[in-house]
Amino acid sequence: MAELIAAIDQGTTSTRCILFNHQGRVVAVEQKEHRQIFPQPGWVEHDALEILAAAREVMRGALRKAAVDRRQLAAIAVTNQRETTVVWDKASGRPVCNAIVWQDTRTAAMCSRLGETEGPDRWRAKTGLPLATYFSGPKIKWILENIPGCRAAAQQGRLLFGTIDSWLIWHLTNGVHVTDVTNASRTLLMNLETLDWDEEILQTLAIPRSMLPRIMASSMIYAEAAGEWAGIPIAGDLGDQQAALFGQTCFNTGEAKNTYGTGCFMLLNTGSKPVPSQHGLLTTVGYQINGQPAVYCLEGSIAIAGALVQWLRDNLGLFSRSADIEALARTVEDSGGMYLVPAFSGLYAPHWRSDARGVMVGLTRYIHKGHLCRAALEATAYQTREVLEAMNKDSGVALKELRVDGGMVLNDLLMQFQADIIGVPVVRPTITETTALGTAYAAGLATGFWHELDDLRLYWGREREWLPRLEAAIREEKYRGWQKAVTRSLGWVE
To answer: CA–CA distance from 202 to each of 81, 106, 135, 181 (Å)?
Structure first.
């Protein structure tokens, strides 16, 4: 009897497979990190074949840990780091180059040229997105222009493009080339109204439509898997942040979540019509259940959150495990007046400044590694407040609480400071693996494992809540210092 959903959660730094039961509980987890490749300053790459191998390995590992076999899987679901761009040869199934990661900034000059007289808002009305290095379209154009032979091969119909979801599904099914509306909405190539690729943008970027996957709903059966998982339906596909929204059961207009992972991403459900942002947010698709209208979101995207902790660990060697940052940060009462603005890939929402770079300001001889660790955690909370304020302005609704998930929410110090600096309660759910859970929910709805959204709401519960404790005057003083620090990061790249 099929009694589990296998969710492949392919993130920026690792790939996991999580098995969920009918109660939405985690039965087993297997995880494997992959390499971060930095060929030049501002360039970030992944080996797509390494990621594919990891996905297969963690699926086997999760089944072993749960002591079950493939016959007990009702469906396989996929959620993925968004925007990261893979172009591969249709015949061989091999990438033409390393995947270009969402954080990569090599297309900055190209995006400036494409803006022409209209600037970064050239295609915002159609796509909900600014012209920025973040998105997939310019990355595809860069590959076609810079990897020998790719332009001709693409024109001959021999190359395929996909975000990581498409790459994995294509290989797991022996050649079914699809994506879902949430991932497609992050390419800068999809029209938000038609939910189809936009011909004018494709022509401007000189991207052949034959490269692109079919755009499907987020919750439906795409195909059956092949090979060692033959016959199991692949039935859920969402970009990681939209999957977390779904996993947090933010199904009603006005509900929001914030995910603290490699980056930090806040999404607000705005209903069945796209809402244009006037304050530096993205308009994106939240999810679509097969046969139903798409649900849209406003999103605030922060490039560097958990990646800053990883940088302190790997590049500066301040601690050996990411979890150790909390103990070091607790050795001090505050950041000692210093701020760390992690604009390693420029600043995303609400600034959209690719010319920004990371800075530490307010340094004195009093500062030691405890202050540095605390400032790193506080940077994530400050960036979240910037996004939250923009969201309040765009939506006209002040959030009453913030639902949180992702690896960093296990850091109690960060969660308390987050509540302090935004002035509203922060709520951590019982199940924090909401990204994998969301795509498992989508697959389960498509296959009858679960029947309706109300079933899923029953599984959401509060594990812990943090209430603001900081005096309003101190909160605003600290935030003004952050805003001043941000100005010091701007205009660094000319």
So the answer is: 23, 20, 14, 17
Using DSSP, state whether 299 is helix, strand or coil.
strand
Residue corresponding to tokens 């879902």: 180
Cis peptide before 274 (omega within 30 of 0): no
Residue range 160-164: mean pLDDT, rounded: 97
Q: Are 379 and 341 spatial neighbours (Cβ–Cβ below 8 Å)?
A: yes
Q: Within a 10 A sphere around the Cβ of 160, how many other Cβ atoms? A: 23
CA dihedral in degrees (443, 80, 87, 157; nearest 10)?
20
One DSSP character per residue, 253-293 reads TT-EEEEESSSEEEEEEEESS----SSSPEEEEEE-BTTS-
pTM for the structure as a whole: 0.84
Which of 81-85, 109-113, 117-121 shows the lowest per-residue confidence on average (mean pLDDT)? Answer: 117-121
What the block records as the tokens of 23 is 């109660």
**Which residues neighbour 365 within 8 Å (Cβ) at sequence distance 6 or greater?**
none
Number of residues assigned to the chain: 494
What's residue 107's pLDDT?
94
Please answer whether residues 134 and 102 qualify as being in contact, where contact means their C-beta atoms are separated by less than 8 angstroms: yes
Predicted confidence at residue 462, as pLDDT, reads: 85
